[in-house]
Amino acid sequence: MSQIKAFCFDVFGTVVDWRRGVAREAARFFHGHGLEHIDAHQFADTWRSLYQPAMQACRNGERPYTRLDVLHRENLEKALRSFDVDITTITEAELGALNLAWHRLDPWPDVAAGLARLKTKYIIAPASNGNIAIMIDLARRGGLPWDAILGAEVTQAYKPAPQAYTRMAEILGLAPGEVCMTAAHNNDLHAARQCGLATAFVTRPTEHGPAQSTDLEPSESWDIVAHDFNELAGKAAL
Fold this sequence. Notes:
single chain; alpha/beta; Rossmann fold; DNA polymerase, domain 1; six-stranded parallel β-sheet; 11 helices; 45% helix
């Protein structure tokens, strides 16, 4: 770890509990529209399932880079229709407000303290597919002490495209090996390692709910493996 100068973090799932937060916001929306029969957590899962396919269209050149707020808004309509919701009865303002659910997510309990410890020695920044406006709102809500906000809107590339990692290091003025990508997702770390970044795996065994079956353990020998951000800070010699 002696060469590491920055820790950069996946956000949705690693830093914040997206499933619980989106379900909370969706439940309020459904209650206000007589749709209480819809399972809010199932809806959150459905909305999230549209995330990767929407970004893939940008990765493979079918459409230019489009910030995540726009993709989420498009996916919101698809998700509502999949639950047989007549979106013609919902105003644009109401849809826009629900789309901001992704701006109102809470960090996992260990995050703020762990980041504060890491910040005493390292540059810390999000490396998220989320756009800057989302990252600012999440930071202000959760007290996340970032030194900078990086990610797709800055690099103009969605992970796991190589540019998402290499441009991030370039922006920081660092070599890839001086940046440690931190995530609860093995595929994110695999892509980062392929670009020369160091890697840290933090387990989030309930990101997808109590029946989660993916990313419960490291799939490779990552440079650091930790159960939470406090253990991560400890293993980073803090």
